[in-house]
Fold Peptidase M14 domain-containing protein.
Amino acid sequence: MFVVRSERGTSMAMLTPSVLLRTIGSLFGLALAAGCVTAGSPGPESIGAFQLGPVCAYESLRFDGSIGTGRLNGCRRDGPETFTLYIHPEDAPINPSSWYAFSLTSDTQTHLDLTLAYAHGRHRYAPHISSDGGQTWRTIDRIEGADTDRASFGLDIAPGTTLISAQPRRNLADRQAWIDGIAAMPGVTRTRYGTSEQGRSLDGLEFGAEDKPALILIGGQHPPEVRGAIAMESFVERLLEDDRLARAFREQFRVVLGPVINPDGIAEGHWRHNSRGVDVNRDWGPFTQAETRSFKDWIDGRVFPIAFLDFHGTWNSVLYTSPDEGEGDRNWFPGAFHASLTEVLGEDAPARVQGHNAGSSVAKNWFHETYAIPTITYEVSDAVPLEAVLSRARLSAEITMRLLLEGPPDQPDDAQDGEIPK
Ligand SMILES: [Zn+2]
């Protein structure tokens, strides 16, 4: 973990702003904080120290929130190396996933004191810093005001461009590049199953045996939940490996994947919603939005679902699952899945909660109730190290394949026909 010193006191002591500038700054800051300034306005519209995002350009420094990930709604220079950065959601009220991302280009080596000022949210995500274009990330854990709507931290930067993001970067282009890579693999079919509310392609991937029972996977419903997206990618890549377990699984089952359910929200840097202000994970059932309706229409009546996983990120790693009791002949799956994970991971295993969000139109409930299949919302903690996100998702894929091939652990006679690799 990366810790930097704070020079806040020193920087503030160097400030000699005029009363006028102070007044303008306060009013502008208040307007931004109250969400009065239109989010995503074209910039820069410089009024001296105060600039609207997504691009704020100062003499030797340039903040750029147009990198297609999170948002930067405005900036205020409070001192030579001291800045307040304003971060707004797409609308309100909203889930407090205070989501930001921008690049910072500097002509010189310098130390900056930055404050993230949120409207309609509090600080949530530790700043992830990359100075190699997003290849590697470190986090800043020493934050002043970490539990408030103004979070401050110090940052040493080298000349060049540094990425500062609430989570590692997975913008829409990154996610599409991943889809392109998977679609190019042998046996994988890519389908444009629909068009988002803003006209973006909704891409699905399928592989495994045609006309066999299908494992349904979805991801990308909530834009900031990048660790969930990374877990989904790792899970799918494991299913596609060329070992005995994965080959046997693909011979017995179909996999149907909607990797980016909410491309508009991801492209717009939204905290939660699609382009029409709807949480798409409250629209499975009503199907008022193209993003959910298209996926349902793509699979309904065409494939035969037998299990479902939906990948997300949240405060703590947890599996929200369909209940052990009820309709369906694989109700044992979520419990066995959790037990197998716990056997390997011990106290690092996710918790399991049955019946969470009962009665709400989340995907987990709709797939369970519609197809009488076991369903899991796979939630990855915001703070799990990336290596662990990857390795635990691989393990989860292996457990899923084994359980679906072998049947319930205590009833080996129910196993599918054929040789099951151990
Ligand atoms: Zn989510």
